Amino acid sequence: MSYFSKIYATNVLQFARFFLAFSLLLTLICTPFKDLFPEFHIVKLKDNLRELSSLNYYLWFTNIKIPYVITLFILTLVILGVYPRFLSILHWWATYSTFYTMFIIEGGDQISVIITLLLVPICILDKRSFGWIKLSNPPCINKYLLYFSYTTFIVIQIQLCMLYLNAGVAKLSVAEWVDGTAIYYWFNNNIFGAPEYIRFLLGSLFTNGITVSLIDWSVIILEIMLFVSFFLEQKFKYILFFLAFIFHFLIFLIHGLGTFWISMTGCLILFCFNPTISFEQNIDEMKKIFSYYKNHFVSILKI
């Protein structure tokens, strides 16, 4: 188990935390304040305080801009990588409070609340003053605490693989996904559909019965394969990371969910990367895998 202590000597954990924090930061600074925190919504929340909602520090202040600024400050410190063991707690608190206060939310915000909470038991053992620092030797950590940290990391991966399994399997109960037409309707939706320039460039793919069905079922297969990747060798996880990264990026281009793409990138790093080597080494390993398959494919074509 001592090998897992290397996670505190690499920057993979910090990269994941960066994307999760950056996603929420962009939401806060790029969305009109009154749209995120309309007065009638805040009044309703304060009138219905219950159980864990008392932890929501947005509801502690009369002026809602004060906790808003506090959140921006916390997220900035997380992005900078300052004292992960302390900021991990504040990161979850800020994410939790913001999620349960914002009037407009999406799936990336919800998964961020869960993942930042699960990161606390892991990050609290990180003794570095800056999470971006890469150490030549892993720190010495109590083996029982390290077991708990490792178990929590596995729980994060199980949470993410179940998320993708649910996304893939749930589509099989929807007639439009099964018959291959769901993508067509989402692509052409008046509210969530693709912008005009994307429709002009790619519209033909979504009007052809064969290509639209291929795209439709490719989404389902990819999501189920991301669940399966939990049980696969690391080299296959790299391939699925790349495919999932492109998949979420296309969702951003077509449906405009940019912060969802960013937050899911952070999740995919935790799910598919080897946390005991640096982020740069993971990228190099991924390049080697693609280079190998590329050369293998070329050699087959030459036969």
What's the quaternary structure here? Answer: single chain
Output the radius of gyration: 21 Å
- The number of helical elements comes to 14
Derived structural class: mainly alpha
CA-based shape: globular
Helix-residue proportion: 55-70%
What is the end-to-end distance?
46 Å
**Count of beta strands:** 0
Quote the beta fraction. under 5%
Describe this structure in words.
Helix content is 69%, strand content 0%. The protein has 303 residues and is an all-alpha fold. The protein has one domain (2-302). The termini are far apart. The mean pLDDT is 91.
Task: Write out key terms for the chains shown.
single chain; 303 residues; mainly alpha; globular
Quick description:
The protein is mainly alpha-helical. The protein contains 14 helices and no strands.
Task: Draw up the topology in text.
Elements: H1 12-30, H2 33-36, H3 39-47, H4 65-80, H5 84-99, H6 107-123, H7 143-171, H8 175-178, H9 182-187, H10 196-202, H11 209-228, H12 234-255, H13 258-272, H14 279-302
Helix pairs in contact: 1-4, 1-6, 1-13, 4-5, 5-6, 6-7, 6-13, 7-11, 7-13, 11-12, 12-13
